[in-house]
Amino acid sequence: MTTTATPPSQTLHEAAPTSAPLPRRRSLPALLVVPTLLILVAALGYPVGWQVVTSLQKFGLAQQFGQPPEWVGLDNYRALLSDADLWLIVGRSIAFCVVCALVTVGIGLGLALLMGAVGRTARLALQVALLLAWAMPVVASMTVWTWIVNWRNGLLNWVLDRVGVDAAGHNWLVQPLSFFVVAAVVVVWMSVPFVALSIHAGLTQLSPEVLEAAEIDGAGGWQRLRLIILPLVRPVISIVLLLQLIWDLRVFTQVKLLQDAGGVANETHLLGTYIYQLGTGAGDFGMASAVSILMLVITVAVSWYYVRSLMKEES
């Protein structure tokens, strides 16, 4: 019985059609992403581009009534660099966002661990309470908070009086330090539910066998938390910390409403309220746009380390 050998050239010729379409298959996901990228560029690129152009112009009240803007180049940025008040506000905003973000993630992690340790009924009650706090509109919740710290008939002063602390008529919003303590409490209270529920979702993905094996090996609760649980949920913690840094740096509504409730605006400005004061208050939209671009640069700089860490973990 004889066998006919297949020539090598014929084998290569038959195998070629199966390998040729591979580049097209690899390029298909990139082609599918293109429409989404175009929409994002159109939706986000235009406002940022308008801010950049406006920051290079003198754009005030006259321009809102039809006069053409005056091109001033980098004059707005030069004025900002020589403004000592601006850098005080920048430092204050960065310190505020870092403190609020760290406290929020710490409390959220504690609540997430608590939800994993309690029974089903208690966990469900805690989750519902967190969702209600998170779903409450900002203005509605701020109405409650401004009543709590009201110096005339607020709940905080009433409680302090009942426990023996003379706080009658004390205005918590006049002094900058107490103002930012109140603002930080409000911001953290509104942000904790998202962090707690996100970390709890990550904790539910941990393998119970790993924790049981560590407990059998003699690892205590603190050791399991430090050596097993935290490293495994580190990606989730990194993401929520990054989001909190960005959100707390851009905080506006809570601070503005507290200022309107009795705070001294010139002594309690953060970047968000300062931009609002320059634009809507003073009508200098060119300077407001320049500060907005500076705020964007600071946001990227603050979050760049965490973005690089996330990219390394993905790779």
From TrEMBL:
<feature type="transmembrane region" description="Helical">
    <location>
        <begin position="177"/>
        <end position="197"/>
    </location>
</feature>
<comment type="similarity">
    <text>Belongs to the binding-protein-dependent transport system permease family.</text>
</comment>
<keyword id="KW-0812">Transmembrane</keyword>
<feature type="transmembrane region" description="Helical">
    <location>
        <begin position="227"/>
        <end position="247"/>
    </location>
</feature>
<keyword id="KW-1133">Transmembrane helix</keyword>
<keyword id="KW-0472">Membrane</keyword>
<feature type="domain" description="ABC transmembrane type-1">
    <location>
        <begin position="90"/>
        <end position="306"/>
    </location>
</feature>
<dbReference type="InterPro" id="IPR035906">
    <property type="entry name" value="MetI-like_sf"/>
</dbReference>
<keyword id="KW-0813">Transport</keyword>
<feature type="region of interest" description="Disordered">
    <location>
        <begin position="1"/>
        <end position="21"/>
    </location>
</feature>
<keyword id="KW-1003">Cell membrane</keyword>
<feature type="transmembrane region" description="Helical">
    <location>
        <begin position="126"/>
        <end position="148"/>
    </location>
</feature>
<feature type="transmembrane region" description="Helical">
    <location>
        <begin position="28"/>
        <end position="48"/>
    </location>
</feature>
<dbReference type="InterPro" id="IPR050809">
    <property type="entry name" value="UgpAE/MalFG_permease"/>
</dbReference>
<protein>
    <submittedName>
        <fullName>Carbohydrate ABC transporter permease</fullName>
    </submittedName>
</protein>
<dbReference type="Pfam" id="PF00528">
    <property type="entry name" value="BPD_transp_1"/>
</dbReference>
<feature type="compositionally biased region" description="Polar residues">
    <location>
        <begin position="1"/>
        <end position="12"/>
    </location>
</feature>
<feature type="transmembrane region" description="Helical">
    <location>
        <begin position="285"/>
        <end position="307"/>
    </location>
</feature>
<feature type="transmembrane region" description="Helical">
    <location>
        <begin position="86"/>
        <end position="114"/>
    </location>
</feature>
<dbReference type="InterPro" id="IPR000515">
    <property type="entry name" value="MetI-like"/>
</dbReference>
